[in-house]
Amino acid sequence: MLDTLILSRIQFAANISFHILFPTITIALCWILFFFKLRFDLTDNPVWMRAYRFWVKIFALTFALGVVSGITMSFQFGTNWPGYMETVGNIAGPLLGYEVLTAFFLEATFLGIMLFGIKRVPSKIHTFSALMVAIGTTLSAFWILALNSWMQTPAGYEIRDGVVHATSWLEVIFNPSFPYRLAHMLLASGLTAAFFVCGLSAYRILKGDEKQAPRLALKTGLILAAILAPLQAFVGDLHGLNTFEHQPQKVAAMEGVWETERGAPLLLFAVPNEETRSNDFAVGIPNLASLILTHEPDGEIRGLNEFEGDHPPVKPLFFGFRIMVGMGLLMLATAWTGCYLLRRKQQLPPVFLKLLVAMTFSGWVATLAGWYVTEVGRQPWLVTGILKTADAVTPVAPANVGLSLALYLIVYVILMWAYIHTLKRMALKSVTVEEFETAEPVADGSLTNLPHSHAHTETCGGTA
Amino acid sequence: MNEMVNHSGDWLPVVFIGLMGVAVLAYAILDGYDLGVGILLPMGEDDELQRDTMIASIGPFWDANETWLVLAIGLLLIAFPAAHSLILMHLYIPVAIMLIGLIMRGVAFDFRAKAAVDHKLAWDRTFKVGSLLTTLTQGYMLGQYVMGFDQSLPSLLFCAVSALGVTAAYSYIGAAWLVLKTEEKLQTRAVRWTQRAGRASLVGVIAVCAINPLVNPGVFDRWFTFPLVMFVLLIPALCFLGFVFNDILLARLPKADDRHSAVPFAIVVGIFTLCFSGIGFSFFPEIVPGQMNIWEAASARESLQFILVGAVIVIPVILLYTAFSYRVFRGKATDLHYH
User: How far is it, in rounded angstroms, from Cα A354 to Cα A374?
Assistant: First the structure.
């Protein structure tokens, strides 16, 4: 039976899943853009500028999708989850407010200068604008993860008359899981953007692009991924330990541990069964889960049966966690192999380029799987220990929610198709077009004091 | 008003309703002009260059403009969570349609420049339809809000008038923006659009002003009680003067050397500000007309203090870099190139 609660949950899940895809790319991609622009400013090598000009267009498109799906999200709190704002609005409101005040305006305003101001401001101001956009997107992640972490591990509050009040804003923001969650998310964004850059660049090269810019971007992406992937494994482990301490039922579901046990195995494969409260087809490495989580081979892991009726659904967490980790390992292996090939042979074989194309959106898969683990893992609570999801939902009629859900889903499918299609088209177009050199010459003579005008490009084109 | 403040012992909600008012007005003016430009997009085969110029005139700004909506709805949520839930619950379907409209606009803007040539017109249509959906639903929601979410037939008729009125007003400010930002043929066209949209807006304002006090007894009392009536009459009087003066000026535009091309936009901003103060004056301190005032809806004092500190520091900085951005992109829109 589809009631308002389940429809609202589907709508929110669809909305947030669609939304997160785009910030996951843009948060890190704008730092990559800032890096390209800075390298150009420092070296005067126009290849950096060409890489910048291509990727800034991709950034603009991705950013636009993030903005529109984000606005939709900000309305959903009020339309579908009124109980959320009524109970924890005193905490959530200011955190979201600071996001708008410190991040949204900053990125939106400087994005205008970044996209359209290239001939209107001096190069340094342009680089500064790219930096401001990068800081803006990162600040945005800071605030939204502060709120998300607070919902997972609330701190710095008291409840008066059923309503949450803040007692310490420092404790609210820097709640126990926040540093791990923020680091994990920023690294995820770095990896997503790195593979995205690698994939699209590899596609250009495979389609016969002989230019330097895609090769430079590909190399940047590979090196970035090779550095971030092991870091992510390390931070992910710390994050897991933190979750084990604060949300043991979530970890029990991720590991498929039903009975509290010492020396729990790390399950490589299993099908958790909530009917029998056990795992079917389990294949595991003895003691490894205990070793990872408690750093002792026979450390105790509390099982799901201790939390019966108050733990999240097991299957989504169990499989989601394995998809995320599997994808992470694949990314690590790919990035290191790529760097090795580049170092030893100075080029990448076509088969490896094809692998990179296939992995263009690998970051999306890992990030979505990770988010499902963390968000579904919070159920049945919306705010751990304070507010249950079922108590926050709107009294609006199911038909209304069904209608809005159908509208959103149609729009999302069309947009996703248009986005992928357009990315492909932009990559193909760039095979024959040289980004920087086809830029229109500066029309107004007074602007020729810009250090990197069209004429200048041609003189240093040979250094490319 | 002092009595009410003292009675509740808290001035913070008053500050926040003021901040929210500023955010809503900034939104109506700023996103107003780019929504208006979207509505006015001509769809003829030969109009592609004009569409490019029109969209270039709002390119660097629309994203920041739309952020004012997020700030306004954010402030409502931060400062008056109870009202936020109540209002959005009543407006569930129109909000969903408005969001679809905003999505269509926001993405069409970017896709049109990057899609294949034969898809460009389709994205331009998406941009226009998205803009129209957004303004019509916003006008409808404003009507519903004023009517206290009443769903009777007369109320819905009022909402329809409001939807058309708001759309006309956004077209008015959008057209005036184009008079300022364009030249030659397109500017001449924009002058005509401004004049027509101005007349339509005047009819809309008069209709809303006539109906509102008739159906809202509270508003009637407030408007027509001495000595406030003197002040109340001042607002429509100035508004009317603005409309008439603008109409006369527009008949003489464009002038040589582009003289006075910024004046219509300035006048429309004035008219928007007056109309908005009129609405604010009609309902303050109620936040949901007839149901809830700002003190009843306000969130906890410590939350408001926490965000106020940030707002006081950050808003001037936002205004500074916004001004910087408008300075960077001053002049006619034809110089803009999307790279």
Answer: 32
Distance from the B53 Cα atom to the nearest Cα atom in chain A, whole angstroms: 13
C-alpha angle with apex A106: A103 to B69, nearest 5 degrees? 75
Q: Is B231 exposed, middle or buried (0-12, 13-18, 19+ CB in 10 A)?
A: exposed
Nearest residue of B to residue A106 by CA position?
B318
CB contacts under 8 A, B 78-137 vs A, are 78-79, 81-82, 84-89, 91-93, 95-97, 99-100, 102-107, 109-111, 114-116
Nearest to B325 among A85, A86, A112 (CB): A112
Reading the block at residue A226, the tokens are 């090779």
Residues of B in contact with A74 (CB under 8 A): 70, 73-74
Q: Are A225 and A218 in contact (CB under 8 A)?
A: no
Contact A191, A223 (CB under 8 A): no
ipTM, 2 decimals? 0.82
Q: Which residue of A has its CA nearest to B91?
A: A79
Written as tens digits, the pLDDT of chain B (339 aa) is: 444 444 455 888 888 888 888 999 999 999 999 999 999 998 887 888 888 889 888 888 888 888 888 888 888 888 888 888 888 888 888 988 998 998 888 888 888 877 777 788 888 899 999 999 999 999 999 988 888 888 888 888 889 989 999 999 999 999 999 998 888 888 888 889 999 999 999 998 888 878 877 777 777 777 666 666 667 678 888 888 998 988 888 888 787 788 888 888 999 999 989 888 888 877 778 888 778 888 888 877 878 888 888 888 888 888 888 888 888 888 777 554 444
**A167 alpha carbon, distance to own chain's centre:** 31
CB contact (8 A) between residue A74 and residue B74: yes
